[in-house]
Amino acid sequence: MQTVYTAEALATGAGRNGRTRTSDGRIDLGLAVPQEMGGSGDGTNPEQLFAAGYAACFHSALQLVARQQKVDLGDSSVGARVGIGADGQGGFALQVALEVVLPDLDEGTARALADQAHQVCPYSNATRGNIDVVVDVAQD
Question: Is the pTM of this model over 0.90?
Answer without folding.
Answer: yes
